[in-house]
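Why this split exists: single-chain examples teach little about how molecules sit against one another. For that reason, every record in the complexes split bundles all components of an assembly together and asks for one structure covering all of them. Below is a record exactly as it appears in the raw files.
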Amino acid sequence: MSIESFFSDNIKAALKNDPPGEWMTATPDGCIRLNSGYPAPDLVPVQQLKSAVVNLIEKEQDLPFHYLGSPKFAKLKEQIQGRLADRGICISKEELLITSGACQAIDLVARILIDKETFVVIESPTYMEALEVFQNYTQYFISVPVDEYGLKTDCLAEMLEERKRQGQTLPRLLYTIPTHQNPTGTTMTRDRRQHLVELAIKYNFLILEDDAYGELSFNKSPIPLMAIDQEDRVIHVGSLSKVVAPGLRIGWVAGAKELITAITWLKKDLDHPFAQATMATYLENINFEERLKILRTKYHTKCTVLISALEQYFPGSVSWYVPEGGYFAWVRIPGVDTSQLLTQALTEGVSFVPGKHFFLDQKNGTEFLRLSFSYADEKEIVEGIQKLGKVVTSNF
Amino acid sequence: MSIESFFSDNIKAALKNDPPGEWMTATPDGCIRLNSGYPAPDLVPVQQLKSAVVNLIEKEQDLPFHYLGSPKFAKLKEQIQGRLADRGICISKEELLITSGACQAIDLVARILIDKETFVVIESPTYMEALEVFQNYTQYFISVPVDEYGLKTDCLAEMLEERKRQGQTLPRLLYTIPTHQNPTGTTMTRDRRQHLVELAIKYNFLILEDDAYGELSFNKSPIPLMAIDQEDRVIHVGSLSKVVAPGLRIGWVAGAKELITAITWLKKDLDHPFAQATMATYLENINFEERLKILRTKYHTKCTVLISALEQYFPGSVSWYVPEGGYFAWVRIPGVDTSQLLTQALTEGVSFVPGKHFFLDQKNGTEFLRLSFSYADEKEIVEGIQKLGKVVTSNF
């Protein structure tokens, strides 16, 4: 008996679009991890989280261990509403749902909105996990390039107009990381944000705004798309993974009430009272603005160290965008296949993510690589780039 | 603009089958909760969980707060393998996936196996949350009655043979809670278990075994269906919600490797390192068999108190099954609509779940109600049944 013969048609199609097993190369122990999109270990508030969980249990006893009933657990939504309001997004509790990280939020939105024949617009390059999620629902994508000013909305406008003119299906959803994008690190300008929201109205699509890095600008935070949108076209997902810690799995989705109601109904892992109440207690105990200031300063320093090292150790023909926030820098090495480069780099003791993983058509990504300055410390960053520079140089 | 116009066809159909908003009546404060399927507050191991989380953080520092990398987190799968092996289920790591409670496991299995036209066999009555999950994927169900010996496999055999004879679609999946079923509290006999597995082979369907109460037998635990199955027809879901605490959201699904691989790929909330590592530390620190002994004794006592109170305070025409484990007792009050009874009961200060919620065709459940002896303490149970008995008597 083959269990696959029992799989639903949707799943058979999804597994065909996006076959399991293509995990990325594991990073060997001792390797300098310029691949990891993890927060810096010394920026994980270990002691404060420990105090929070101890306070919580002492105060609430069994309550955070039940399905419902923890008073702290109920606070988390308010705290996130507050954070969103600080960024210009004013929403009610019915327009907000806590999820297990941004990734679950993206999956739930995709599940609600995408049919087998739905066209989804994605940035090129884009966050690979999101791309995988979408590929579980559809195989129809429109890739729009990203440059140093974010998604090229003029290209998007042309593509949409051309599709319309030719009577082709128009997209239902566009997925973007407008601020400190993964993987390019670039940020959409205010003008392009405005343009994008106008295009959504004109061509009748929804925008899924992934704001995972939105609070990690080194200088002024850009306005979220949701704060520009006047008619519920933007669905906003966010997360505390990058600013507190990913292991608690706290993210959210904000959007039109009807959408949030539908998502809530379909989300069958229920809530996570222990993790959510721990996070709420932690947030209550700290000054979040102070924490953000520290994070921004530290990541800015690490980013500067990375860029200086690139300038020092990489050949002149290699180019990159200079990040203004977030976790990542995007590097182009003309004429070099970065997947092959990775094998050599791992031997030297440094890791990165080859650019191809961020493209629908992986051929477009062979010359690129993503470097993360979040996880490795400053000394490791310099050492890692030095090693990598040696490998790159040997390929010219 | 209406956001619903963007919903996928599947979701539109699901929302039609299973419209949001039909939540059960909330229990007023101060009410005796004979409705809650929660563990008893004094059986939640608050101090041990606190020690576990403190130990974990002191030992592993930032590791359980990242996406990966916590050594304890990696232990949990082994511990669950061990518990399953004790019950006669021998599976490899590739055949097991940790989920956020049994409910997420059921949803993921449903998502993999159910098409819009798929027939699913359910017990009548059955666990309402599971029924809701299935209704998000299909509207075709075959209800098979449950009696004091569990699912009536002879009825099932007749129904399947009749469908086959008439050339009707045969089911792809059967969902059962064979041990201390929710809501009836009854347990499938060994003969019926064997018969069910044979029927799955003969009529080529899969069995989803929900074993949430499988470790809570007052006497000997029955053999799980998965331990009888010789050809990967049984998918087994379980949970630590009923034997440790639901708030950590630890469940699992065990099944054929290809199924688990597909589920892992589709499960986009990722893992929950903090909660899973906390649970693993707790399990390592305690003697689980000792804990189970205590739970079984306490719940047995509470169940005995409930049944005695029913005998004392309920009219002679009311009947019930005497549970041999689990959390629930199932009561029939001939000629009384238990939904209307609930309104009166809440006024008196006691709560239960009306039987209709556990039936696909809610009309079949009007005379029944589910009582939980897990959450309320013994004094409350007696007082609650006394109050409820008064309300019931006034309806004759």
